[in-house]
Each structure stands twice: as structure tokens, then as C-alpha cells.
């Protein structure tokens, strides 16, 4: 049997398409809904209390105070807030307005002021280069990986 190279881009596009189909018509799936964003935030807080996040801890440890972070798909700020406490500046990109409302509340409660919040998909956001880009729990929603 001849060796056939895997077309990873095609597999990626099929995965994203299947995910969209699986969630099509589901009421409440959209993060633009306040209830969905609040449920996401509650889940994030629960995860942080139960076991923390080893990758977040690693990133915070490795992050230098003079570095900038681009948080793509920032959601409610699970990563933005703790990274902003270490980084020189954080730019948070989030398309869902309900998630942004909670993110802004969390930033205010944490007392961080070095975060620029942009409401946009990451593909359409106009940002300058940053030292670090964070795409945790985001990249799987992007169908067109070529050219990104």
C-alpha cells in the first residue's frame, strides 16, 4: 500500500465544519448570549479553584515584565487578567459582546489598567505585533488556517 501524505489543512476544515454543523440550531450556544457567557465564566472560575491551570502558570512564570501579550479569544479574561498582572500590556480580542461585558468587569475588579480590549474576530482585528500570542481554546473555531 503506497504512503499517502495527510492533508492536515483539509482535515482541519472538515473538523471545523463538523463542529459548526453539530452546534447549528442549538439555543444558547452563542457566547453573545448573556446566560452562555455567565455559564462560561462560572466554569472557568470552578476550574481555577479545583486544579488551577498548569499552562497558565507556566506562561506567567515565563512572561517577562516588559513583554506584551495578545490574547486572542479572550473570553471573560481567564488568561487576560493574570497575564496583565505580569505583562507590560495585554491586548484582548473577543468577538462576543456578552463575554466582553464580563471581561471588562473582571478587569475592573482586578484593578488592572494595562489591557486594551478589542471587539473583533481575530482574523479581522487590527493589532500591532506583540511578544506573545495566546490562542487557548480559540484556534479550533477558525476554518481557514491557510494564510493565517
Walk me through the structure.
The chain is of the alpha/beta class. The chain has one domain (28-141): Rossmann fold (3-Layer(aba) Sandwich). It is 41% helix and 11% strand. The chain is built from 5 helices and 4 strands, in the order αααβαβαββ. A 4-stranded parallel β-sheet has the order 3-2-1-4. β2, α5 (97-110) and β3 (115-118) form a beta-alpha-beta unit.
Task: Give me the secondary-structure topology.
Blueprint: H1 8-23, H2 34-50, H3 54-62, E1 68-72, H4 80-84, E2 89-93, H5 97-110, E3 115-118, E4 132-134
Parallel strand pairs: 1-2, 1-4, 2-3
Features of this protein?
alpha/beta, Rossmann fold, 5 helices, 11% strand, globular
Structural class: alpha/beta
CATH homologous superfamily label:
Vaccinia Virus protein VP39
Order of H and E elements:
HHHEHEHEE
The helix content is: 40-55%
* Average pLDDT figure: 82
Q: Give the helix tally.
A: 5
The CATH topology turns out to be Rossmann fold
How much beta, percentage-wise?
5-15%
Beta-strand segment tally: 4
Strand count, sense and barrel status of the largest sheet are: 4 strands, parallel
Give the total of domains.
1
Rg calculated over all Cα atoms? 17 Å
What overall form do the CA principal axes indicate?
A: globular
Stretches with pLDDT under 50, minimum 5 residues:
none
Cross-sheet strand order for the largest sheet? 3-2-1-4
| Known CATH architecture | 3-Layer(aba) Sandwich
What is the CATH C-level name? Answer: Alpha Beta
Rounded to the nearest angstrom, the distance between the terminal CA atoms is: 34 Å
